Amino acid sequence: MEKAIEWVKNHKQHTAVIVIVVVAVIAVLIAAASGAFTQQDKTKDAIENGDETLKGDAGTGILNKLDGNVNANPNVSDETKENASKADEGVDVDGKPADKPSGGNANASGSNTGNSGGSDKPSTPAHQHSWKQHTAQKWVSNMVTVPDYETQKVYGARFYVPTDVPGQYIAKGPEYWFENGFTRDDLKAIIFNAMKNADESGLYNGVSYSSYQNITKTVQVQVGSHQEDHGHYETYVDYEYCDCGVTR
Description:
Order of helices and strands: HHHHHHEEEEHEE
Shape: rod-shaped
Oligomer: single chain
Mean pLDDT: 76
Radius of gyration: 68 Å
Low-confidence stretches: 106-114
Number of helices: 7
Number of strands: 6
Strand content: 25-35%
Structural class: alpha+beta
Largest sheet: 4 strands, antiparallel
């Protein structure tokens, strides 16, 4: 007896397993007789909810012993015996969940694959750019020299000629303008020469140079120059674009 007590103290984990097994067997027998619950459900709970000592070979051994006890009980139905024999199926004795049949998922996957293939639509052709030209304008320079003018008044002299009425004269004779280097001294020289060579009527070449009419006129006189750009605008293509928004 002392050796048994010593063995229990040194093998607490094993003792716990044995106790759990005995309790589980008793619970199964009672449940089988009363029909309150099925064998495999409680057995699975005992193993899956137990400590680590019920994993691996220990858990498998419990299930095997349970199967033998149930089959030996004359009060247990055939259905219960069959369930007890299958109790280790789907039980995680190694700490990992048992594999589940994948037939249903495989069929569903195959069905999905078929549906996926059936819903394929023709691919849209790749976009082809249709390029259009965008134009702009630029200034083409052409520098030229432009003369500067101003309005000036020019003085001159107009001589007389005789009319059809004897002794009457009208200022429609030659005109001399003091411009382009012509001076009053030049005019005096002309008058002097005409008077010297006048005929008996006092006319020189039909003109009376004895007097003249002062006249004026306005002219545009160049007083300088400046530079101007007489260029023009030219149209050119600055880039190409597609209606999709791409440019090049």
